[in-house]
Every structure is written in structure tokens, then in C-alpha cells.
Amino acid sequence: MAAPIFTVVVTALLSRKRLSRIRTVGLSVAIAGAGVFFLGIPATGSHRLLGDLVFLAAAACWASYTMLGAPLLSRLAAPTVTVYATAAGTLALGLIAAAELSDVRWSELDLGFWLNQAYLGALPTALAYVLYYRAVSQVGPAIAAAAMFLVPAFGLSCAWMLLGESISLTQSLGAALMFVGAWLNSRGDATRETTPAPEPVDVRS
User: Fold this and answer.
1) CA-based Rg of the chain, rounded to a whole angstrom?
2) Residues 59-68: pLDDT tens digits?
3) Closest among 53, 79, 189 to 133, alpha carbons compared
4) CA 123 to chain centre
5) C-alpha–C-alpha distance, residues 62 and 59, integer Å
6) What does each C-alpha distance from 127 to 33, 81, 83, 115, 131 come to in angstroms?
């Protein structure tokens, strides 16, 4: 949830543009919702601090990915930018994973594993990234990144509907706040754009 915060703040600083009041409220509500949501998840493991720092680093990378890709979208289509970004990421991860390939027991990987990889590559990666970059080109990086507040809320809803997982009252409240915050954030620019400009004053009168 730090990624949209980084993106909105850095975008505002670079553009030297103050956030509208409604967007500030929306961002605050979404952040509060994220805090409430994750309070409902029990802390596990002995390396929680290290894990949180890694998550913050990942959020910073995602914010950079969003903002650096935005200028390219004025010249290239969203699928093209996504292909370049995915190819670069694949190369980087491939170099890191190369040392471990010899330990993989390829014969034990069944059809279910490969179908799962195909699904992950087609929908949550290819399609989702193209739609995300298309949103960046349409509404800008700040608003598109703010939609990431909806990810845990939708993930929780799907887990409840499809997998029968239970949802705590704390998580439901946090998800609701993130929905409201994301909606207010998207409404901020829409409200400003639809506000009629003042009528010019005729100084001759």
C-alpha cells in the first residue's frame, strides 16, 4: 500500500502541484483503511522488520515503474511499454535465479504447475500490466496508482467468494475504507475538471 502513497507524493512534488482537498481526504482515508485492513492479519515469522523493509523497497520500485513509464506512453502503446518492462524484469530475475536452476526437479512439475504458470503469465501479469499502463496514460500515474488500494479489498472478496475463506470485521472495515479512499481520489480530478470556469468580466462596463 506504500506504492500509491509514494507515487502520489512524488508526482505532486515533481509537478509542483498541490493535491486538491478531496484527493487529500481520499488518500488519507485509503491509508487509514490500509492500516485497519492489515491490523486484521496476524503477525507471523521472526523476520517481520526485514520483510516490511523489503515491501517498502518493492513499493518504491513500483512507484518508479509507474512514473518512469508515464512519459513513454505518449509515444508508445501500453502493450509495447509493458513488453519492454516485462522483458527487462525477466532478464533481471533470470540472472538472480540462474544459480538455482540446477536444483529444480523438472520431472516432478505436473500439469497443474504449468497451467498455474500460464494463468499467472496471461492474466495477473500480461493483461493486468497492460490495463494498468493504459490507465496511467488515460488518468495519470497518481490516480492509476491510487487504484492499487483496491487490490487487497478485491483479493479478500475473491478469497471469500471463491475459496470460502473467512473475513474478520476489521478486514471488512479496512476494505470499505480503501474503496472509499480510492473513489475519492479518482473523483478529485474529475470534480476539478467539471467545475465551470468563471465568466470573464467586461472591464468596459
Assistant:
1) 21
2) 888 888 888 8
3) 79
4) 15
5) 5
6) 27, 13, 11, 16, 6
